[in-house]
Amino acid sequence: MARPGGFEAAEQQQQEVLSRQQERHYRLLAELQALVKALPSACQQRLSYTTLSELALALLDGTVFEIVQGLLEIQHLTEKNLYSQRRQLHSEHRGLKQELFHRHKEAQQCCRPHNLPLLRAAQQREMEAMEQQIREEQRMMDEKIVLELDQKVIDQQSTLEKAGVSGFYITTNPQELTLQMNLLELIRKLQQKEAEAEKTFS
């Protein structure tokens, strides 16, 4: 008994979709293998055929490219924001120092000569206290920056793990972080290649 024509057409269509996906998977895998050759050999050894094949599968529909793009944009914005906060603090500190310097200068000009050594000693202590406070505020700002950037890394790891990208999970292990950074770089380079290929064909 012959199967209805509609069913065969649907089946054929499904086969074509699968075959296209398979072709795309092989192409992405081949491109990843080519890109990996540019990485340090220690990293190359850790990126097995299986890992790259899983990565190529995760990249099939293009969603991961969009996720990575979004994550990188968030990271750049955060870095820019933190950098400008640090610059602002630096400029506030410069202003405070100048203000103190002028105040000291005026006080010295109005001071009687025999009181000058006492005044200078007091001013020296005040200047040192301010330097100490400035150093402390800068240290706290730098700690805040490191914590925020660490948090961004954790967000990226978690997002990519949920998206099913092989090699991504929350970790602070330096070797694993290096591997993840290299994987991100591979995804970014592949995305650029895809974008260029689309431009060529459109």
TrEMBL record:
Keywords: Coiled coil. Residues 120-147 form a coiled coil. It holds the Pfam family DGCR6. It comes from the Eukaryota. Belongs to the gonadal family. PANTHER family: DIGEORGE SYNDROME CRITICAL REGION 6 DGCR6 FAMILY MEMBER, PROTEIN DGCR6. This is DGCR6 protein. It comes from Calcarius ornatus.
